[in-house]
Automatic annotation (TrEMBL):
A GO BP annotation: riboflavin biosynthetic process
Lineage top rank: taxon: Bacteria
Role, per record: Catalyzes the dismutation of two molecules of 6,7-dimethyl-8-ribityllumazine, resulting in the formation of riboflavin and 5-amino-6-(D-ribitylamino)uracil.
rRNA processing keyword on record: no
Catalytic activity: 2 6,7-dimethyl-8-(1-D-ribityl)lumazine + H(+) = 5-amino-6-(D-ribitylamino)uracil + riboflavin
Pfam family, one: Lum_binding
Keywords: Repeat, Riboflavin biosynthesis, Transferase
Domain Lumazine-binding: 1-96, 97-193
Lumazine-binding repeats: 1-96, 97-193
Keyword Signal tagged: no
NCBIfam families registered for this protein in UniProt: PRK09289.1, PRK13020.1, ribE
PANTHER family: RIBOFLAVIN SYNTHASE, RIBOFLAVIN SYNTHASE ALPHA CHAIN
UniProt name for this protein: Riboflavin synthase
Length: 204
């Protein structure tokens, strides 16, 4: 489990095509500290497993489905990525509960800079819109953010200078894809209420 608080802005240093998958080599001196084979690291919000590692880099295999369902398929050598290690037991939950399971992708639609922050508008797949609410949480490229405005096919987020400086959202431009993970609690509530409705209907 992750919290959506990016620890490090890493970089793709190599991409190896394995046929039905790809192996990424990523530079991340902070997140590789103490890393072991089999550990999880979130890359732009996608939970990946460490295969090999050295002092400042690690490799991870990315299956075809992940490449197709996330923005990782668009990454190339030199791409910057958000990196986060799983939350340690007993640590503070600085963002919100993030699984590292991407629900879909959106596209940066526009950016509106102001003196001390920036508003970013992002497209939202129709099947995810019911999970996104004003002042709720959403994960964008692995970053825990608060929704400012929620529309039927888009949402906006307000980015502080720290987020702009230390994550990929400081560099994304209109047309760039981003990974989206909605609040898992909303999905559980929907499932529970749906099951309850079905049960009540059967009782009748």
């Amino acid at each position: 489990m992750f919290t959506g608080i990016v620890e490090e802005l890493g970089e793709i240093t190599a991409v190896e095509n394995l046929g039905d998958s790809s192996r990424f080599r990523l530079r991340g001196p902070l997140v590789t500290q103490g890393a072991q084979h089999g550990d999880s690291i979130a890359v732009n919000g996608v939970c990946l497993t460490v295969v090999e590692h050295e002092d400042d880099w690690f490799t991870a295999d990315v299956m075809a489905e992940t490449l197709q369902r996330s923005s990782l398929g668009a990454l190339t050598v030199g791409s910057r990525v958000n990196l986060e290690r799983p939350m340690a037991v007993g640590a503070r939950l600085g963002g919100h509960i993030v699984q590292g399971h991407v629900d879909g992708t959106g596209t940066v639609l526009e950016r509106k800079p102001s003196e001390n922050w920036e508003i970013v508008k992002i497209s939202l797949p129709a099947d995810l819109s019911r999970y996104v609410v004003e002042k709720g949480s959403i994960t964008v490229d692995g970053i825990s953010l608060t929704v400012v405005d929620a529309g039927p096919d888009h949402f906006t987020v307000s980015l502080i200078p720290t987020t702009l400086a230390l994550t990929t959202l400081g560099h994304k431009q209109a047309g760039d894809p981003v990974n989206l993970e909605v609040d898992v609690i909303a999905k559980y509530v929907e499932r529970l209420l749906g099951d309850r409705g079905a049960s009540q209907g059967a009782d009748r």
